[in-house]
Structure formats: C-alpha cells, structure tokens
What we know:
- By secondary structure, the chain is an alpha+beta fold.
- Helices cover 40% and strands 18% of the residues.
- It has 22 helices and 21 strands.
- A 7-stranded mixed β-sheet has the order 5-4-3-6-2-1-7. The protein has a 7-stranded mixed β-sheet with strand order 10-9-8-11-14-12-13. Strands 16-18-19-21-20 form a 5-stranded mixed β-sheet.
- The longest helix has 52 residues, at 426-477.
- The chain is elongated and about 150 Å long.
- The model is unreliable at 1-6 and 700-709 (pLDDT under 50).
Amino acid sequence: MPTSAFHSHRLLDRGTAPFVVEARLVRELGERLVKEPEIALLELIKNSYDADAMTCGLRAREGEELLVEDDGNGMTQQEFLSSWMRIGTSGKEKVAFSRKYGRAVSGEKGIGRFAVRYLGRHLVLESVAWDSSRKCKTRVVATFDWPKFDRYEDLGRVEVPFDVYEEPNDTPTGLRLSITKLRKNASSLDLRRIRTAAIGLVSPYTAFIKEAEKDEVKPRLGHEADPGFSLFIHGEAEQTADLDVAASVLNNAVIRVRIRLRDTRLSVKLWRRDEERPRYEIVEKIDNTIGPVDADLRFYPKRKGTFTDLPVNGKRAESWVRENSGIAVFDGRFRVFPYGRQGDDWLALSADKARNQREPTSSLIKKHFPMSKEVRLDPTQNYMLQLPYPIQLVGAVRVRSTRDSGGSDEVGLIPAADREGFIHNDTFTELQDVIRAGVELIAVADRELLEFLAEEESAQRLAKLKAETREIVTEIEGNAALRREDKQKLIRRVEALGEAAANEAEYAQKREQALEVMSLLGVVAGFMTHEFGVAVDHLEKSKTILDKLSRRHAELKPDAEAVSSSIANLRDFVTYSEGYIRGASSTPDKPFPAAPRIAQMIRVFGKYAEERGIAVESSVESSTTAPAVPLSLYNGVVLNLYTNALKAVTGKSGRGERRIAFRAWNENGEHYLEVSDTGVGIPTALRKRVFDPLFTTTEKNRDPLGSGMGLGLTLVKRGVEAYAGQVTVIDPPPGFSTCFQVRLPLE
C-alpha cells in the first residue's frame, strides 16, 4: 500500500504570498477602461465637479498639450497620497456628497488617473488647497512619466516625485493637469461632443434639465448654496448663434413629452405645438428600482410645416435638429455615452421602424392604448407605424446611477467599467420601458395629428377650389369671345370638375385611369398605321381603275379627284405615323433642326385649319435646333399644341383674325417653343387647370377631329417634364389671346 505523499516529505517552509502588481497595469487599465479621448476628458471634468469647482477649463495647444484647470477644493499632500496615489480607492464610494456644496458625487473607483494615462504619456499635476494640519495653503506639484513607470515589475515600487510649497492665503484653490506627449487619438478632439457632455456647458440639453434640477435648488443641511458649475473650452467660438437656434427650435417642437418618476409615481405628459394644456396625461404607480427620472423629448417630423414660422432659417433649424438628434442620457449633470449619439439605438427605434413594428412594446402604452387586430393590420390607423426615428427626436433623460450595488448587478443603474453606458440589467430594462413609453405616446399623438392635418388640408383645398371656381365663372361670363351657349356649357363643366376634385382620392383614381387608357391607345395606333398602309396600297390600285372610268364617264371625275386627294392625305398620315412610332423607341444622339418638324406637322394637318379659315404660320429659323429628345416627343408636343389651338380658334364667336403662330428659338442653354392663337382665350384662374387629365372645354362638334379626351395637354406636360422641361400658359404676344410656352434644356 503506497505511503501518503504528505506524510513522506518534511515541511521546509510556510507563509503567505502577496500579489505583485506590475506597473504596466495602469497602462492596461487606462486603455481598457477608457476607449475614447472625449470620455477620458469627461472623467476629469467630473472630478472637478466633485471637488466643488465653479468652473472647469479645457485648453488644447496645437495637439501637443491638454490643460485641465478648475477652481475646486484642490488636494493637500495627504489627500494626494491617500486618494490620487491609491489605485482603486473607495474614497468616493464612502462619500456620497461633496464637501462644500453637497453635490452628489459623480466619479468613482479612481478612473480619473487612468483617463490621464490614456490621453498622454507625461503629466504634471499641480494642486492648491487649504491644509488644515499645516494651517496654510499649499501647492502640491507631482510629475508622472508613465512609460518610465511601465518598466517596473512591481507597481508598489514606483516612485512619483512631488514637491509641496507653501502658498499665500489669497492664492485660489484648485487643480491643474498638464498632459503632454499626447497619444494620437487625443491630439484631435471632438469639442462638440465634450460641449454636450456636461449640462453646465452651453448645449441644447441645458434647457431640458433646468426643470429637473428644481428639487436640488435648496442647499443640503450643513452645506453652502451651490453657485453652479460651468465648463469653458478655450479657443472655441462663442455659441451665441447656436443658442438662438436651439431656443427657437426647442420652443417649437411639433410634439413634446415630459416624463417624471418619483418614488412609485410615474407621470407622462404630452403637448402639441402651441398648446398650453397637455393633450395626454398618464399617471401610474410602478415598482421603481431606477430612482428619480426626468425626461424631456421633442419631436420634429420631416414634413411640411415643421420648421415654418420660426424666427430662424428653416434649413438651419432642420440642420440643428439633425446635428443634435437622439435621446441623450445624463447621470446627474454628465452625459452617459453612447446613448443618444448618432447611430446609437438604445430604445430600438430604428430597428422597429425597419421592420414596421405594429404593436407597442412599452407596458404603459400597451395598457392605455391597446390595439384591436383590425386596427393593427390597418396602416391608416396603426399608430406604431408613426414611431419616430431617433433622428426626428431631440431629448434628454436625467437619472442617478447606483454607486453601491450591494453585490448585485441586477438592481440599480450601474455604470459599465469602461464608462460606456450602464450594465444591461433589470433596472436598465425598466428605464428603457419608461422612456420608450414616451416615444410611443408621440406615435399615438402623431397619428391623430396627421388625421387632423389631412382634414384641415382637405377643408382648405375645398375652400380654394370653390374660390377658384367662382373666379373662373366670373371670367367666363365676362369673355366676349365666347358664345352664350358655350359659356353656359363651360361653366357647367368647370363646376362639375370642381365638385369632382373635392373628392381627392376618387379624382386621383379617375385621372390615373384616363391616362392608362390613353397609354393603351398607342398599341391601337400601331395596328392602325400598319392597316392604313395596306389599305392605301389597295386604294391606289382602285384609283387607277376609277381614273380610267372617269375619262369615259364625266360624272365620275369629281369622285375620282376626291379619292385621289384622300389617298394623298392618308399616305401623309401613314408616313407621319410610321415616323412617330419609330421615333418613340429611340433618342437621337445629337440635336435636330426644329423647323422641319413644325413644317411637316403643318403640311400633314394644315388642311383642318384651311377648312376653317384659320391661317397657320411658323417663324422658326433653319439654324434653330431642338434638344436631343425623342422625335416623337417633339412631334407630339407640336401636334397637341396645334390641335389645342385649332379648338380654341374654332370655338371663338364673332369676327376677327383667325391665326395660329409657331415660334422657336434657343437662349441661355434652353430651347423655347411657343404656340399662340387668336381663339377664345384661357381665363387666368384656369391656366393651371388646363393641364389636368380630366379637364376639357371642347365640345365634340367643335373638335376638328371629333375625338378630344381632355388628355392632350396632360401628356404634353408629363412628356416635357420627363426631360427636365416645363410647359406653361404665358401672357400672349400682341394680337393673340393665348400662348403656350415649352422650355427644354439643350443639355
């Protein structure tokens, strides 16, 4: 049987072994606990606040030195040795409030010195304080050469040189940190992020938190009244302009929500713009593990009217919201990153918008605004589809982190070790639920607001339509160029159109249906062109026979001549249509002469004007080129404006010139085409309506082709605008009553 190992050997030694901490631990902790230079500086600012400073100044000198100075209590020699020189000191955990003003202490666990190590390789610390043991003011000056310390195997053997001087009693107290040999990422700081990281600094969040701080106005027993804390960034431009924009924008939010949690009482209030009384007010009793919460959320949707009537430029206001968007979280007076930073989605707003979340997630909104299945499936009623994006919100949430969790990470807002947010425990989930309720309440109110705006817009549109209709009727009645029966028919049509347009949804549907029908006619036109071509060939053979018969039978001669003329016209139509169809499928690679296009249209369709005693003229120079748009587009515009002019002149009563005139020229990089006529004219109030798909003033018996659908000008407008052009009714030249002008860019 083997002998026990413990029994077979002599005991040689016994004792205890301490951990040996290498000096490079400070560097390792600095790089892991602090990830960004702005957060490192924020830790130093917190230390100044905890030291009862009224001001803290930051100065960056050409990327070579960072200075952090404050007018706080400073440190005596004893405080320097027991606090600053003790890694992981628990001193702040034992003291919840500052010495002089009773401020709730912000920093903890001695992270400040790690922040300094993260920012640069060399530090000179100077501290002036009242030393009660020496009965005088002293200045402590210490020098830290961090890379030199890294060489030591035992952190306890690192020696930091310091000197202590006596100072006159009138020397201001405070701390000065001079950080040099900066690390690369600390040589270029985002001052704006630092500016918005502390409430005392000029920032959009200052106004948010003032209301929340009313509970802290009275000084704590045994402490002086707190004069406040201000942060100054030397060399940064004055923020007066930003303050003006901030005040204007914040005071004109479309929707605003205030959240207040005290003990077990949760209050959520919502206002619309320019409303003094809350539109919604919800009060609930909840199990609160968060502590006191104050939140102020402002909503700026990207829609018409959001930034109108502001005392600042609308584009500047919109830019300001974009720059300051997000819901920031403050632990006391200091920002907790990354919450509210661009790209952060701590409330899952962007994620839920991306997947069209249709049900509320906050317990408060589920209780007070439940949705039926029908409402949830209806996009016109489901309020969650109006959930704001983070970029549409500017807000701040003020909480108090838990300084001592009592060994449990599940209760309390506990800062993460790297100072990036809070630990995601049950308390943090509760905070998310409370703030998310405020955002979802905005969605509820915004759905109602959109319905209200739609009704208001509809009423305004109807009133405008009625006013326009009255104006048009008055102008028609006073138009001497119109026959009485034509006036009555036109007035009835205008009134009917106004009534139809009042029902916008039905009106829009009819417009699109009419355009769809018109687009299908292109297929019919292709078949007709082909069949006409075949028919013309057969007619040519028949014409030869008819010509022979007319020579033997004189009574057939007029018919033979009429058939011959009709065949010639049909041949022109077929040729024109074939060219039109071919031109629709291709775009020329260079500009083409405009005059031949107009001349061809007049030659083919001019007889309709001649039959009605209407003169058609064209004053287009041969050197004028049209832009490189499809030939069919240009031909179609010319033809539609011509037939429109024919209708207008044909419908005119009384005597007078009956003319249609074409003009075209190039000027300032644009091609101009104008078609003028001496017809009945267009009332001023009707100038926009004539492009409507359902608007026509032409009677069948006045239409030269007897086939008007009221779509010609609509198609002209759409075709021209498709190539970045514009068509408008302008004041006519002398001697004419109407003029349509088309502008197309030459490039």
